[in-house]
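Table S7 (text form). Paired inputs.
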Amino acid sequence: MIPGVKRGPIAWFVENHVAANLLMIFVLAAGALTLGTIRQEVFPDIELDAISITVAYPGASPEEVEEAICTRIEERVASVEGVKSITSRAAEGVGTVTLELERGADSFRVLRDVESEVDRITTFPDDAEEPVVTEVTRRRQVVDLVIYGEVPERTLKVLAERVRDDLTALPNISQVEVLGTRDYEISVEVPEATLRRYGITLSQVADAVRRSSLDLPAGTLRTRGGEILVRTKGQRYTGREFEDVVVLARPDGTRVTLGEIARIRDGFDEDAERITRFDGKPAALLEIYRTGEQDAIDVAETVKRYVAEHAADLPAGVSLAVWRDRTDILKARRDLLLRNARLGLLLVFGSLLLFLAPRLAFWVTMGIPVAFLGALALLPHLDVTINMISLFAFILALGIVVDDAIVVGEGVYHHLEEGKSGPEAAVRGAREMAVPVTFSVLTTIAAFVPLLFVEGTMGKFMRVIPLVVIAAFSISLLEALFILPAHLSSVPPPRAKAGPLERFRRLFGRGLSAFVNGPYAWVLRRAVAWRYLTVALFAAVFLVTLGWIAGGRIKFVFFPKIESDRVTANLVMPQGTSLAETAAAVARIEEAARRLRDEMTEGGRPLVTHVYTLVGQSAGGAGPQGGGASGSHLATVRLQLLPS
């Protein structure tokens, strides 16, 4: 028991150094272990609380789609319980209606009700395809690969599918999609004169093809040796296999096959008007996604290793490149946090040396890693991962978590200067500062609590910030009140005979005391004496600040505009422009990009690293495919710049 000190939690930890050390080691170890297992992703994985209804109406203009598709869907789903708002988008050949759900609504029940209402619509045009009703999810795209070269489209598609199969066979990659190429299609063209000569119709030809390209079960044969499953194998996959399909069988035994009356071609979907180029060469795109508990950085590193190991296996003239790695920004934010943490530790320790003894300054500074690793250990239990938002929250808390430890440390050092023993000074200093430090942390936490109640999709992103900050502040308070006093109890009192560092610290302290007792005290006394004038001055500053905001002098934006490593050019030609004409116009933009690439360099490297071109679609999303509107009159050119 410490003489002259009452018992309590703080005194118990000061008396039992082992318990305090074990608690600190437990917090540090838990954070270090969590750091190796916690999932890393670019943005938090959340539910978007939205339902999408898509109906394809081939050949229809946006006005026709709006009237015949979107309006009729809106009328049916407006009364569904749980729907907060309805947004429609009519484009050439397709209409999309997006429903935002109310907070707390059962998305599965609302999805079922919406499907029922859409199924009741009987007034869709005959040419419209079946509605597709899905729950909107945020796809967790990690990185893109591009296969490009002066080779036929079929070669690119075959190579892209081979790379896709190789990637999905790897242990930590589950989802890869091939984009930028058209779907396979076998076209059968029968001249009208041939149909008349043989006395058949296109419907008869289609029925013959449909009946002759099937795999059908034919039942079971029971024998003494067991059962035998009978199955007919008639599915055809190539144009040559369709040539011997019997279209017409005459009574005399002669037959007319499809190859005799039609031109059969193995090709691609001619209705899908799209051209994809990368650095001026035909290209195919592979989008790699993260699923489940997969780590985004691990997925990206696996893809890069695959490119390094297998790029040489591709045919001559074909190259494989990483187009956009979305984990770059995550790694940059993580590196920024580590740099700031190292710099913060040095600055805090250096600043504390001006006021406190070196050992005391060291233990106060240790509050930063203890608070951060402790908060990191709590993140999985709060359903938070390492992502852009949580890293921002850590950076935000970096300069605040050590404040309570500084206050407690200064209080302990004050008692040491008065001649008290280390244990007594630690307990008295911590107890004196416990109430103000606790309320200081609670008021800071209270400032972040409202972010937990922000509604909508943005609220699900924003909730990460208060969870991380509250966890860090709570661990910091625990460390300052129980672990720190135990360590400071062994700090010796100031010695009468001081060394160079102590003499400098005392000189700095006398200078600071002179400032506090001189100019600062003079201003403070007059501010208190003329309190009405002081209040009026601060009120005037407050009103001027409000006036600047209300007058538009200080702009209010949701996200500030920052420089990007990409440049995007969207081309919109007049409605009805052919794909060839749009491609010719895009070629001029590509040529300008190539000239820019040759002229502008930085450190001997071109400022423009890659040029991605997509004709037949405009950019509307994060990926190269954009997710925007499609049409032969649209195009997008994207330039990847040298990372800044």
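Next pair, protein 2 of 2.
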Amino acid sequence: MNETAIKNGSTLRAQALDGAVAVTGAGPDGEKTLARIADGHAVNPHLFIDAAGTLHLFYTAVRCACEETSQPMHSMSKQGRYSEDFIRFGGASPLYPRLGGSFTPGDQSSGVDENDPFWSGLEQAYRSLARAAGAGAEQTERFIAEKRALALGLLFGIENEKKHCPIARRFGFTAAGAPAECLREGKSALLLPVYSVFLKCVMLMVSTDGGECFDGGGYLVCSMKPGCEAVLACGDGEIRLSLKTGDVVKPAGVTRDLGATWESLYDASDFDFDIHGGETVKSRLLNLRLGDTGPSFRFLPGRFFRLAKEVAANEQVFKRAKTRPSGPDTGFVRGRVDGLEGYGVPSVEDIFPMIREHAHGSGIAALHNGELLCVWFQSDGERRGNYGRIMAARKNPGGPWREPFVMADAPGMPDCNPTLFIDREENLWFFWYPVLANCWESSQTRFYKAPKGAYEAANGFDACPRWEKGGVLNPARADELKGKAAGFENGAYVYGEVNGECCYIDAEQFRQHPLPKRSYVKIDDRYITDRFVVAARNDMAETLKILREQRPYPGLTPFFELYLRWEAGRTCRIAAGAERTYEKWKPVMRCLGWQTKNKPLEFAYGGKTRLLLPLYSDGLHWSLTAFTDDGGETWGYGLPFGATAPEQGAGVLLSDGRLRSYFRNGEPAGHIISYESADGGETFAGMRVETQLRHEGGFDILQTAGGLWLMSVTEAAAGPPARKHNRSRLNVAVSADEGRHWTLTPLELDRNGMEDYHYSAVTQGPDGTIHISYSHDAGGLNNIRHAEIRPGG
């Protein structure tokens, strides 16, 4: 338990109860619960009131039922927004340690290699402690081999062009002790000690803006055993760190530059040189994309689909008619949208001038009062960016787009693919993801929510809204990770407590009580019964059945069958935690790697209003959904599905209550695919190739107030002189019969294929106007454009 006194003498307390953090207030009328935060498995809460009177809550969220998936979290409530009777936190935000700073200097990072300076310094610190502690040579070398593999991304990392992205330097940190506040060059600095479970280092996360933004990179090597707490003491221009276990307090280090560098005072005899892998880690890449059991050749999904398209072209499997003229561009004249009766000619404008910095991945919302709000990401790159942020701009009714501002920014990391949504109660939702370790597999989906009255420029919110809810979306299904079945009762296997391992039965259990083939996945010596893994494998099998029966690709079916079988094995091993020796069978990567693109879908389901957000993984090439039936208080997650790598789903509601989602994917002819759900988006099935719709990059869909389906989708401008795989034709596709037939009208078109118009988002305003935002690239510059299609005209 942790407590703090507020100005009127009352006390606020925080404690972890049943995996959640409860904050209570003790006033004249007794104690009552003011806030409850259920965030994974939440532990170790700390309350703190800074000099400005802001209340801060720090805690550790365990994402996937094991310590290696720990993450420090922060919520705050400014003075006047809390008392002994109420607390209004503005949502929960992760703190993102950057152990050792950026992986490489400069604008972009492709990862680290054997010459990484961070590892050189860390190895020296380990060896110095080993000498001082008199540790045995064999134990020391095994320990250092494992830490080297973690620090260089050989374990718990991703290969990236012969370099590695070490996720262990960004994830697996706990809130290690109580926060503190000190003055630095006349400014107040808020400090939180955090501890790396993987690499045994303490860092300081530092905020100099009142808790809005935290960053940290320097480290002090030490062991923090269970029950140990970091204690900070500030004074005389320095910060002293001690480690407290029970009543024993020992000095650990001192820093004079807010944790950038440390003087170690740590007692080396207290350091644990323990090994987690159970064996010496070899100096080789355990590639998360391949796993340990793939074929000896490098068979990557992206390369497969490119090869499939080449084979299809050589064998003339797809004879694509030239539906658009070839030759020099004679100019494009924008006209009315076919199928969109009663609407005028679309108008197009730039939201901001063309810039060289990468600007992409927009989302747009039409507010209830006629204002527009557009978001996009802007950085030195996408996943490899060493900086990046979510930008936004506002437009008042009848006015121009106003100056862009920063909507969200994880320091030293790229933030990507934002989307916005206004729900039926006129709440504003904002979804996006930071990329923690310069690889898509380290993405982490986040959300914020603001009520009506807390986001409009007319109410004084010229920049960011006042968020009143927020957090992390985590589809890992950690509460289902219960390991080996404890018994067999009433015709079914039963499992015990959560322990972080996938559910499974062993060979003897399977011999005694065998299961149907669709109920397990055999991996090594285990029969995995985990629903997450089994659902994805079954979808792959269903897709294979569809390909065999329908044979949409003459001459390619055996090729696809080979790929689907291999891909099912690869991805299921990752999802089961079987691809690595470090904490094998704990699927820690299931809580990361999930990405956003399109807005959620809102509909009535089970007597409640459901908000359903499509998510996808660029590492697993799977999709699934996150959904809430209570306005974001709690979230559920659908089961994954794979097929031809469905990504960036865009959903609509059918008249019979089923859902249909359209997906960008690797289908070799460039067609969109669709899936349907009959259970509110929790499971999807029935993969279908949409032969009327092709795509190059992301797209979006809207069910208009009049019942039409309207899709903003980019395809390539066909024929010479257009370059291959251009994104030069942005279409507005309209269907009046729930997707059975589509009419396509170009909104933007460059027949030369030199300018791109892509990655669109679409919404409809209260007055019926349709708004489309999209990326525009030309001549090495880019910006975000806005098109509107007004009723009448």
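The radius of gyration is 27 Å.
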